[in-house]
Design goal:
The protein is mostly helical. Helices cover 64% and strands 0% of the residues. It has one domain.
Length: 74
């Protein structure tokens, strides 16, 4: 069976965001299966898209992103 073609995306994240990503991957992992940080990112993308499709408040996400932008610039 051919391998799924995947796109690569490189993003810059803060040390705090990397720590959150690492902690989340660790918490989702089990003795039978380790979860990678990439898998956590893919899960987050799917979860956000699903929530937006179900009518989640765009303003909530925009506020989070705006807070990150202000934090990054500060």
């Amino acid at each position: 069976m051919p391998k799924k073609e995947r796109k690569r995306l490189q993003v810059v994240i803060s040390d705090e965001q990397d720590a959150l990503l690492t902690r989340t991957a660790y918490e989702l992992s089990s003795p039978e299966r380790l979860i990678s940080k990439s898998e956590v990112v893919r899960l987050a993308i799917e979860k956000i898209a699903k929530e937006l499709g179900e009518g989640a408040q765009l303003e909530d996400y925009r506020a989070i992103l705006e807070a990150d932008t202000i934090h990054d610039e500060g």
